[in-house]
Design a protein that fits this description.
Blueprint lengths: L2 H37 L3 E2 L2 E2 L3 E4 L2 E4 L4 H8 L1 H34 L5 H9 L6 H12 L4 H9 L1 H7 L13 H25 L4 H8 L4 H12 L1 H16 L3 H6 L7 H11 L3 H32 L2
Antiparallel strand pairs: 1-2, 3-4
Length: 308
């Protein structure tokens, strides 16, 4: 291979690697650093003091960490973070229990109808996210179709017993309406990775398990579920991460008892006009989301190394 070809190959390799990193640096890292800078700055009316100043030959660094201390000391922020994690986890589990059977039967369906089933899963994306949430607001309101069905079947009594709604007929602005809205919205994000993973599974493994005397249920738990672990983790991350910072669904379908960190962030920015505190809340939320992402990346790296 000639020297020019080697140089061109190295240049192409650096371009492939460098362009994504440049994109992340420009549209994630720099904005995040700006928000972090605001979080440790002192606010003067509508401006921020410089954290790095040069005066009389002295370079001074002024960082304000009291906002981060407030996150720990003020129960409001702690409870909203816990609430966000709780509702995101519940939504993720529900999406997994509903989405896994969907993805399983899609992957086992005839190849001729799989594109149609896949289209049905993606069909909600053709409608505005906001319109779909507003639709649920109408369905769960008094005399809405969903509200009448739940009341007619007596399901509202079970929801009251579990503490998901305060009284029969009061479905809106409750934990039930919030979780229902988030589950409906993010269910496709669980189904699609699971379907992609299950569709590529080698069915000969199930045949071998059957020949060795395993029942269908045992083969499912011992072979199908472990082999679909990557899809489960990917789908869970795609649901959990956006649910933690969700704002629109809690605002339209939730209530005071379902306060999440997205609403708190909005209040700090636009109601209290406290940008340093709002930036602190945002930084903490991003760091909170990075933890499951790091776990996912670690698992993916280990799975890749374990492949022959």
């Amino acid at each position: 291979m000639s020297a020019s070809a080697k140089t061109a190959g190295r240049g192409g390799r650096w371009a492939v690697i460098g362009v994504p990193y440049f994109w992340l640096l420009l549209f994630f890292m720099l904005p995040f650093l700006i928000v972090m800078k605001i979080s440790v700055s002192e606010m003067e009316t509508v401006n921020f003091k410089d954290v790095l100043t040069w005066k009389d030959g002295v370079l001074a660094l002024s960082l304000k960490f009291s906002n981060y201390a407030s996150l720990v000391q003020d129960d409001l922020y702690f409870l909203t973070y816990v609430s966000s994690l709780k509702y995101a986890a519940v939504t993720t589990v529900l999406c997994l229990f509903i989405g896994y059977p969907f993805a399983y039967f899609m992957a086992r369906a005839k190849a001729t109808i799989q594109p149609a089933l896949l289209m049905l899963v993606m069909l909600p994306f053709w409608t505005s996210f906001l319109l779909r949430v507003y639709a649920w607001k109408g369905l769960l309101s008094e005399h809405g179709w969903a509200a009448d069905f739940i009341a007619g079947t007596g399901l509202d009594r079970a929801l009251v017993a579990f503490g998901l709604i305060p009284a029969q007929g009061q479905l809106m602005n409750t934990p039930f309406s919030l979780v229902l809205g988030m589950t409906y919205t993010y269910l496709p994000f669980m189904i699609l990775p699971l379907y992609s993973n299950l569709a590529k599974m080698d069915l000969r493994l199930l045949e071998a398990a059957s020949d060795l005397g395993a029942t269908a249920w045992v083969a499912f738990w011992k072979i199908t579920v472990p082999l679909s672990k990557a899809g489960i983790i990917a789908g869970s991350m795609l649901v959990f991460i956006p649910c933690v910072g969700e704002y629109v669904i809690p605002e339209l379908l939730g209530g005071p008892q379902t306060q999440m960190i997205g609403r708190t962030l909005w209040d700090e920015f636009f109601s209290n006009n406290d940008w340093p505190m709002a930036s602190t809340v945002a930084v903490a939320m991003v760091l909170l989301i990075i933890v499951p992402l790091a776990i996912f990346n670690k698992y993916q790296a280990e799975a890749t190394e374990a492949r022959p």
